[in-house]
Write a structure and sequence with these properties.
The complex is a heterodimer of chains A (about 230) and B (about 260).
Chain A lengths: L2 E14 L5 E14 L3 E5 L6 H9 L6 E8 L2 E4 L5 H10 L1 E4 L11 H10 L5 H14 L16 H13 L5 E5 L7 H16 L3 E5 L3 H7 L2 E4 L8
Parallel strand pairs in A: 3-8, 3-9, 6-7, 7-8
Antiparallel strand pairs in A: 1-2, 1-4, 4-5
Helix pairs in contact in A: 3-4, 3-5
Chain B lengths: L7 E10 L2 E11 L4 E5 L6 H8 L7 E7 L5 E3 L5 H11 E4 L3 H4 L6 H11 L5 H14 L16 H13 L5 E5 L7 H18 L2 E6 L2 H7 L2 E6 L2 E7 H6 L4 H8 L5
Parallel strand pairs in B: 3-8, 3-9, 6-7, 7-8
Antiparallel strand pairs in B: 1-2, 1-4, 4-5, 9-10
Helix pairs in contact in B: 4-5, 4-6, 5-6
Classes of the chains: A alpha/beta (about 230), B alpha/beta (about 260).
């Protein structure tokens, strides 16, 4: 299998100007590769910078130094240096992300929240909604909730809506930030199955997963982030 | 053929009111289908910038180029009168914060929408009326209010009518100045949802001035943060809001009250 994502010497710190310019180092020289069809789980205690790494790969956080390389067609693109237009394009075509919490948009029904990434990619609204329905059903979201905005859903329901939204487009790279944190055993098993299916299709996955059971089920490699701890 | 060319490009745009600075040295490119938010406090120069871009104010220096429908990028300052008219009447929309500035308050809702069509040569009454009815429906205004004047409308309805009036000519670029300012939050949410949907469906480019970072996050792909007339930070909207770099942007982001 080919390298899908090649992360080289990636560093990140925050400068908090409101706290007198306090500099908070996060990670230094993070380096690892993700092969197509495999899952890398980021290990380390909370606060080690795992979520920050996912956010840098998604272009949500800026990187101070280093490279995040991926192939798009024949071109090799460095997300760490990409301009906004390129990052938007990558999110449409290459990199999917399931954040830890759903950022709900007022008034938009759950099924449209899930369908939206497909509609943005040129799939018809009806077809996108149909596929969204399939995912919501698979994730055991009761049909009576589909037409309601998810803002009032329980934590576990919101997380499953978020997972459905992240899994609906078929992108070659998928980033998962604690996708099973607030799910019960049955739904955890569904998500583990969905991850396994995507690996089989060749998707490269980078995940954060705290439960040992889930981690053992999905990880092909564990990268301990503590080895990249920044020195303050 | 042209999606790789910007629709609109500002280059070194500055405006002085006498010796007082309006905005200084603003440059950016906007592409088809992109929504750009310009955020900052009142007095930061964001409305001045919007007026420069939309030819309502003349720049002290710098230029704005716009790719016309024939695919040729033109300097806005060099347009002929008929080209300017085409932009104002057809290819651009401008949504004012106060709907009374963008509507004729004593003319019927149908007339408000139809007027834009008549200005570009539509003459057939039945067709104008059916286009107006269609647009009222798209902005969720009941068809039986078509003959009522907007002064009988609520604030949220007026704003939706203003949007219909702007979009009926299928513009490629729409300017919005605090489109949700002064509306109740529930009305705001509905309007934002509507705007988001229309911008996506129509593939519009939009430039939205707002002081509300939540509005910027919901509507825009890219953002420019202004302070004291200068663009102090810009980039992908979620990147700038989640990982702000400049002291002032950090202050803005940290000043949002959680609901």
């Amino acid at each position: 299998m080919a390298v899908a994502l090649d992360i080289r010497e990636l560093s990140k710190s925050f400068t908090m100007h409101l706290q007198g310019g306090l500099r908070l180092p996060v990670v230094e020289r993070v380096t690892f590769k993700v092969m197509a069809g495999s899952c890398v789980v980021l290990g380390g205690p909370s606060g080690a910078g795992k979520s920050s790494i996912l956010k840098m790969i998604f272009g949500n956080y800026r990187s101070d130094a280093g490279q995040i390389l991926l192939k798009q067609g024949k071109a090799v693109i460095d997300i760490a240096a990409a301009d906004p237009r390129r990052i938007l394009e990558l999110r449409k075509r290459s990199v999917g992300y399931v954040s830890q919490f759903l950022r709900a948009v007022p008034r938009v029904p759950a099924i449209d929240v899930v369908a939206e990434p497909l509609v943005g990619n040129g799939v018809t609204r009806d077809e996108a909604r149909e596929r969204a329905a399939g995912l919501l059903r698979r994730l055991n979201i009761s049909e009576r909730l589909w037409e309601l905005p998810p803002a009032t859903f329980s934590g576990g329901e919101q997380q499953r809506v978020n997972i459905a939204r992240g899994f609906i487009p078929d992108l070659p790279i998928l980033l998962l930030d604690e996708p099973t944190a607030s799910l019960d055993a049955a739904n955890r098993a569904v998500v583990v199955d969905m991850i396994a299916a995507r690996k089989k299709q060749g998707t490269a996955i980078v995940a954060i997963a705290h439960g040992d059971e889930v981690r053992a089920a999905i990880a092909d490699k564990i990268v301990d982030i503590q080895q990249f701890a920044a020195v303050a | 053929m042209n999606s790789d060319q910007p629709l609109l490009a500002a280059e070194g745009l500055s405006k002085f009111y006498g010796r007082r600075l309006g905005c200084r040295d603003i440059s950016f490119e906007l592409y088809q289908g992109e929504v750009l938010a310009i955020v900052g406090e009142s007095g930061s120069g964001k409305t001045t910038l919007l007026q420069l871009l939309s030819m309502q104010l003349e720049a002290s220096s710098g230029s704005v180029t716009y790719r016309m429908r024939d695919g040729v990028a033109r300097d806005l300052a060099s347009l002929t009168e008929s080209e300017r008219r085409f932009l104002f009447r057809t290819d651009w929309g401008y949504v004012h914060q106060d709907p009374a500035m963008g509507l004729r308050m004593a003319v019927s809702a149908g007339g408000n929408v139809g007027e834009r069509l008549m200005a570009v040569g539509w003459r057939h009454y039945g067709r104008i009326r059916s286009a107006a009815t269609d647009w009222l429906d798209r902005v969720e205004i009941d068809a039986n209010r078509i003959d009522d004047a907007p002064r009988t409308y609520s604030g949220g309805m007026r704003q939706r009518l203003q949007i219909a009036r702007n979009l009926v000519t299928a513009p490629r670029l729409i300017f919005m100045d605090e489109p949700t300012g002064g509306l109740d939050v529930s009305v705001q949410a509905r309007l934002l949802d509507l705007l988001r949907r229309l911008v996506n469906e129509l593939g519009l480019a939009a430039i939205v001035v707002t002081h509300d970072l939540a509005v910027a996050r919901l509507l825009s792909n890219r953002i420019i943060v202004m302070k004291g007339g200068e663009a102090i930070e810009s980039g992908l909207t979620d990147q700038v809001l989640d990982d702000p770099r400049e002291p002032y942007t950090q202050l803005l982001v940290s000043s949002i009250l959680p609901a």
